[in-house]
Amino acid sequence: MSDLVTIQPPGGKPVKELAVISGKGGTGKTSMVAAFAALAQSIVLADCDVDAADLHIVLEPRVLRSEPFIGGKRARIRPDECAACGKCKENCRFEAVLLDGPGNDFVAKTYRVDPLACEGCGVCAFICPVKAIEFGPVVNGEWFISATRFGPMVHAKLGIAAENSGKLVSTVRSNAKQIAEERGMDLVLIDGSPGIGCPVIASVTGADLVLVVTEPTPSGLHDLERVAALTRHFRIPTLVCVNKWDLNPEVCQRIEASARQMGLGLAGKVRYDPGVTEAQIRRKTVIEYQRDGCATDIRAVWANIEARLQTRTPALGNDAEALMRGEYILKVNHGERAAGVKRRLPWT
Amino acid sequence: MKLAIASGKGGTGKTTVATNLAWVAASEGRRVVYLDCDVEEPNGHLFLNPEISSSAPAVRLHPLVDEAKCTHCGLCGEICQYSAIVCIGDKVLVHPELCHACGGCALVCRPGAIAEAPRKTGKLEVGAAGPIQFVQGVLNVGEAMSAPLIRQVKTAAPEAEFVIVDSPPGTSCPVIESIKGTEFVLLVTEPTPFGLNDLKLAVEVVRALKLPLAVCINRAGLGGEETQEYCRHQGFEVLAEIPDDRRVAEAYSRGMLACEAVPEFRAQMEALLARLGEFSPDSPMTTPREARQ
Questions:
Q1: Residue B185: inside a domain
Q2: B18 part of a folded domain
Q3: Does any CB of chain B come closer than 8 Å to the CB of residue A73?
Q4: In the beta sheet, which residues pair with residue A260?
Q5: Which residue has the higher pLDDT, A328 or A249?
Q6: End-to-end CA distance of chain A
């Protein structure tokens, strides 16, 4: 169609990535993603809400493979070697060094690193004059490749109070994409996390399309504006879906107007429906649970998203380098538009 | 009392409980400070409508390299754990948004070519909503790290008898930063499978920080009894069960404090405040929650 240039990895069709995020929490991202999973034909699911993952509750994945996640490094002071000079504490910017370790042959008290406060910068290990500080990688989470009734799923569990959720999100995403490529599937469906910080940035960068699920409240509107600024910052095409729109039709209208002003597409509205919670309690997607009500709305939203995905050139994202190395074959499709109309490629 | 209001799951009603609790406590004549530590998506101001008296840029340090002094030894790139400073040949590249401001690069740079310069990452706002003292942090869009700004919000808080920390959702570093240093954590949840799953995760966070906690069940009646059973089994006090009430949702959707619109909700918040008083470190009734678990 209007898709003049498509990029094809060798031996397969391009995999697209749709990230569902919200800014504000609790607007219905995960329920929506689960419903899309039931509607989509050929997808790999990626639960990128790694610090409070919920998608597995409805999709009941069967774990096929699990891997430890090594997210960063941590410092540890060996109490028997610490001379209690205090250099580590002096140079730690994160208030992670405390003078409450056990004593040894030389001093009554030694320094200790609070693992919850440590950001793994390694400054203390560098500065320690007696080399009493170990600094090495730590496992702070786990990620899984699973099978669900709707297709493969990659998900994770970040260690409690752990850092580097962005890195774990990237691990989940890249594995989901690899599976999709290997099996010739069309789409990676990403369930993102609330907020606009590191895990969200890792969920959306390089995605082909973002869907923001919002709700008709001042918080929903306020957070949509911030999250839209984020996707604009990373130049990702963005659609908006107003969930539970009938709770306040007036605010819903304001959200739609504001979305248009911000240059966002509208994916549709979904009515408030207690069936969503009922379905969740029965570990079902709302599509499996009921035929009408909000299921009708979600079907319409999904149809809009699919149409949009098909008319978009995939973003280059992280594949840009592979493209430069010539690992991809460029194919020019002459669709309904006149032959010979080529989009100027960013690297030519 | 320094109270943190948190939840694993987003949208369970943290801000609703935090703002209304602040309002109820202030109308009882107590000196209240409300801190919005959800710096990625701060919403408390939408309901409290504070008058901001000071708005200051929130800054973080990042390295500035003096090319004239740089000997391209590469040590800065080696110590940096965040790829915020990278040496390629005779080029030193700095990615400020990845920098944790640990100071490592400046520390290892022998010729002293690296200086640390402040960079604006958001703003810190202080004000008042009637009798409620108000502090919030607003993170710039595109900034990945919220924990340093949360630290600044907490540092900017004035002393008061009752400090309410409205925390972001989740279980990772921003939540830890918000909860750390408070005396008591109230976990707001909703009685759904998602709510319960994330409540359990939030409980693990609070336990890791060794803080006492209690639970507030919002939109009670929405799902089953599993959440109540879990709390009973774990020995957690459920300090409030707020019924699912469309009027509360409507007040919220109009940017109103539910306390002002729904009298029953106000009564529930007053009761919650009284129950919280039992857990104040100054109260003789305080029992260490740890002992019960």
A1: yes
A2: yes
A3: yes
A4: none
A5: A249
A6: 23
CB B56 within 8 A of CB B129: no
Q: Which domain holds residue B25?
A: 2-30+161-292
Decide if A247 and B253 are in contact by the 8 Å CB cutoff: yes
Query: Does residue B111 sit at the A interface (CB-CB below 8 Å)?
Result: no
Number of domains making up chain B = 2
Both B65 and B24 in a single domain?
Answer: no
A175/chain B closest Cα distance in angstroms: 22
Contact state of A160 with B12 under an 8 Å Cβ cutoff: no
Of A25, A123, A162, the CB nearest to B172: A162
Residue B241 within a domain: yes
> Taking CB atoms and an 8 Å cutoff, what residues of chain A touch B174?
195, 197
- CATH number of the domain within which B201 lies: 3.40.50.300
Pair B165, B25 in one domain: yes
Whether residues B94 and B16 fall in one domain: no
pTM for the model = 0.88
Q: Is residue A8 classed as helix, strand or coil in its secondary structure?
A: strand
Which pLDDT score is estimated for A161? 76
Cα three-residue angle B40-B198-B218, rounded to 5 degrees: 85
- Most B-contacting residue of A20, A21, A22, A24 (CB-CB within 10 A), to test interface: A24
Distance from CA of A196 to the nearest CA of B (A): 6
The DSSP line for A309-327 is: HHTSPPP-GGGHHHHHTT-
**pLDDT single digits (tens) A87-99:** 999 999 999 999 9
* Cα A96 to chain centroid, rounded: 29
Q: Going from the N-terminus, what domains does chain A have, and what CATH number goes with each?
A: 5-60+149-322 (3.40.50.300), 72-139 (3.30.70.20)
Looking at residue B64, what is its pLDDT? 96
Question: B178 in a domain, yes or no?
Answer: yes
User: Residues B179, B99: one domain?
Assistant: no
Out of B46, B107, B204, the one facing A219 most closely (by C-beta) is B46
What integer is the mean pLDDT of A119-126?
Answer: 96
